[in-house]
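Hi everyone, sorry if this is the wrong subforum. Our group has a chain we'd like a structural model of before ordering constructs, and none of us has done structure prediction before. Sequence below.
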Amino acid sequence: MIFKRQIPNKIVNILIERYEEEALFLNKNNEYYDYKKLLTSKKKIPINEFKNFIVKTRDDQFTNFDYYRRNKSFNSTFQIDVKFKNFLYIKFASFQDASARFVDYISETSLPFLIIDLRDNIGGNVEECVKIANSLLPNNCNIVNLKYKRKKLSYLSDEHFKKFEKIFIFVNEYTISSAEILALTLKTNLNNIFVLGNSTFGKDIGQTTYINKKYNYVFNISTFKWDVNGHHPSDIINIKMNKQVLQLDDYYRVMLSKVET
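Answer:
Right subforum, don't worry. Here is the predicted structure as tokens:
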């Protein structure tokens, strides 16, 4: 595929306006205004030049601008199994299009225990995360609070949920963003949750993503910070596993010790 490598001035102005209006972390120093003036004086801007502008003026590592490439791998990363006869095991690598399948699987099972494997889960769509959490939480639980520059949003659960005897959540240092939200909101709102691991990524900020397929770019702007009932990623784990490198069997061993035989 041949990318359109230049963005017209009109689009550049819209992107900069959006950047200034929404970004939580933006370094508006003299260099910023000089660079902005240079960009907006041109009729067309190469994508790489606008990308460089964002890198030089952002104050966080997650705001970025780049070529848009469709990721086709999400649907193939959803795994489901039955472990040890009584455990429904679900693992997915992101929250992209995951909620419908997750809800279907848990609604159909009669197994007493649920494993949600969030190791190496890169997060993704907050609304998808909220739907998954909602399927496991009783009525009127605070799922997550999002704080933008000029507004706040809070998501609450409704009465439609599936109850398990125990829920085990596996996390690691690559459990990121919305995956951290899911683990934390279940742990905070339920008393039958065991979050196992030795760390998570610790990302309590989220991005709004703008995609333009005509000019082949994607713009991720860090627009909100999140918390769950005042808790942050450092509060996620309640079963600390001190072993530096964890294998799946390590999680199973600790998990089984928490289930009465």
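For your construct planning: The chain has two domains: 6-67, 76-206+223-257. Residues 6-67 form one domain.
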